[in-house]
Amino acid sequence: MSAKKWRCTVCNYIHTGETPPDKCPVCGVGPEKFVLVTEETVDEARKRELQNICFGISYGLYVICSKDGAKFNGQTANSLFQITSDPIQVAIGINKNNLTHDYIKKSGVFTASILSQENHDLVKHFGYQSGKEVDKMKGIKFKLGEKTGVPYIQKTLSYLECEVDWEKSVDVGTHTLYVARVIGADKLEQGEPMTYAYYRATR
User: Fold this and answer.
1) pTM of the shown model
2) 3-state secondary structure at position 9
3) Ordered alpha helix ranges (H), the chain
4) What digits encode the pLDDT tens for the residues 116-135?
């Protein structure tokens, strides 16, 4: 009888054994995030291989926050990049299933807190739980941006306040690519920016 295979639903790591691992060696989540692989097609295996290769693309890590009236939420994201310098515009890719996506869609504004190599705790806090189930802002030190009224996270390198340009934003299937003008920003602390590669190597 062949050994069972378990797939991590967060990072797609495959574990072989009778039970899932106590902790994913790649992303650190517990056994509750693993599902039993009953049938693994060639296409599915190839897709995971491509996903793992894409982990080699260099990314930064950020906390993206937005609001719905007086309610706030944030999430970890790695798809923030500057696209023009005059005017200063950035783009972010946000999964449509995430609460932050709904808040940006409603308010048209967001902040991006740029994480340092000391912000492992923020990556986990904003990345491994859903704002639909918990108040992610509880216990987090933040201030509200003067231009947007959206939280930015203290103890990070810097932050941007952004206003969505709806004419330039694009539906890309599972995600929306929000193109936005940077309307405010400030430096907060000194340090080295957190990259996705650095986080994966040191978590």
Assistant:
1) 0.76
2) coil
3) 42-54, 99-107, 120-127, 196-202
4) 999 999 999 999 999 999 99
